[in-house]
Write a sequence for this structure.
């Protein structure tokens, strides 16, 4: 008779020692909770998740109110770094964002979110241990727009996230004004923004979460044409791989062109044996080239007191968040574009004099759907003084920019030179309150709330 199986008293860290009678052996292992906490795999209740989401939401809303996305300001700030070595530039740039600046890009927003979320969690004793699992994540694309599989070696987007045991809390201020909780198997789509005509649409991030190889939740962005996986990244790597290369990206422009005449002799194409024909044509020869910054853009997102009539928005505790205006800067063409809403602003009866001035000053405009694209060409000298002045006031009003900021923007677009000498500002009818004078830097607007 076979001996009876050995029976032992089970402890919390031991498995059951039972005979295998042709059935699947099931190991039950109980890991002490303190060990789970050290791994950052603590089990969270629904109440705890709601508290964490509420704190992350405050961080996201505060940053959405105080900072905006701008590749123009990214170029300015990175170009102005005084340090010559990489480590010195990292330290200098990090010092700039100790307090969030008014303008930044995804790395700046992710870094500010990461810092602020950790700070708030450390101030709450029962939630302080979660601060250690707040991460910076970088997006690595796994397939291109055609669906062809490939693996990117460098990330192109960054965000902050709190990785829990079965879910992820995401703070991506660049794409969405609020934080959101993604359980494994769920999806979340970010805000759709208005875009300039004939431009590639701004990305709408469709985040999803699944368990990774190690059993932890993994964040992905799954669009119909491509897929991106998010991995932890250091702030230094985010600066080196995302922020600095994008800010320093340039385009090649011919520095000088020379036209010359090219002559060739060939037989007459009509009559065989006829006299030969001399063919002349003008050929442009490029003599060297230069590099200048690529096209830059600034998004002006605001919290409205009432929902927009046509624009896409997100309802938040602070108001209705939407992209109200957008500026595009083309250094090569020395031109600026301002994108404004049609139904929500330009087509309203009280803006009739604005439409009149745009027509009177021969502003090229493209209207499409919910928006109007107003174009300022600094190489067109006809009525340039009036057009620059009107465009400056329009930007100051729509974008809450000071006259100093707008003037600097126009000078940078014009290669650092003033396109005109300012001679006066009497363009609009006296007493007009909709377009402030250049001395009224940031006049408040009734439609902006939660500021």
């Amino acid at each position: 008779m076979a001996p009876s199986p050995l029976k032992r008293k089970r402890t919390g860290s031991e498995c059951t020692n039972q005979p295998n009678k042709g059935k699947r052996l099931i190991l039950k292992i109980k890991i002490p909770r303190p060990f789970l906490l050290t791994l950052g795999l603590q089990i969270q209740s629904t109440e705890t998740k709601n508290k964490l989401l509420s704190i992350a939401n405050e961080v996201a809303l505060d940053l959405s109110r105080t900072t905006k996305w701008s590749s123009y300001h990214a170029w300015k700030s990175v170009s102005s770094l005084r340090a010559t070595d990489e480590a010195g530039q990292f330290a200098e740039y990090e010092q700039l964002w100790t307090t969030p600046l008014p303008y930044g890009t995804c790395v700046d927003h992710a870094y500010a979110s990461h810092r602020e979320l950790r700070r708030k969690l450390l101030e709450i004793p029962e939630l302080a241990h979660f601060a250690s699992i707040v991460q910076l994540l970088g997006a690595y694309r796994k397939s291109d727009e055609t669906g062809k599989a490939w693996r990117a070696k460098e990330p192109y987007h960054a965000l902050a996230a709190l990785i829990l045991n079965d879910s992820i809390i995401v703070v991506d201020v660049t794409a969405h004004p609020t934080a959101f909780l993604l359980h494994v198997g769920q999806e979340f789509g970010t805000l759709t923004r208005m875009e300039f005509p004939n431009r590639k649409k701004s990305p709408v991030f469709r985040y999803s979460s699944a368990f990774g190889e190690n059993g932890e939740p993994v964040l992905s962005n799954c669009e119909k044409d491509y897929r991106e996986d998010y991995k932890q990244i250091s702030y230094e790597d985010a600066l080196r791989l995302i922020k600095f290369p994008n800010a320093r990206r340039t385009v090649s422009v011919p520095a000088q062109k020379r036209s010359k005449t090219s002559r060739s002799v060939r037989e007459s194409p009509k009559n065989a044996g006829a006299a030969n024909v001399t063919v002349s044509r003008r050929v442009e020869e490029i003599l060297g080239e230069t590099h200048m910054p690529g096209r830059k853009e600034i998004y002006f997102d605001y919290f409205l007191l009432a929902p927009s009539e046509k624009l896409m928005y997100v309802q938040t505790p602070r108001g209705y968040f939407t992209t109200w205006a957008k500026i595009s800067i083309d250094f090569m063409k020395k031109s600026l574009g301002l994108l404004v809403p049609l139904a929500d602003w330009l087509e309203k009866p009280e803006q009739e004099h604005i439409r009149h001035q745009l027509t009177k000053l021969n502003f090229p405009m493209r209207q499409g759907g919910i928006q109007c694209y107003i174009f300022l060409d600094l190489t067109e000298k006809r009525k340039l003084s009036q057009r620059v002045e009107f465009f400056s006031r329009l930007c100051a009003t729509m974008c809450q920019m000071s006259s100093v900021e707008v003037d600097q923007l126009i000078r940078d677009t014009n290669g650092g030179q003033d396109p005109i000498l300012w001679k006066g500002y009497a363009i609009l009818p006296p007493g007009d309150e909709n377009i402030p004078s250049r001395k009224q830097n940031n006049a408040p607007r009734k439609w902006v709330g939660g500021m």
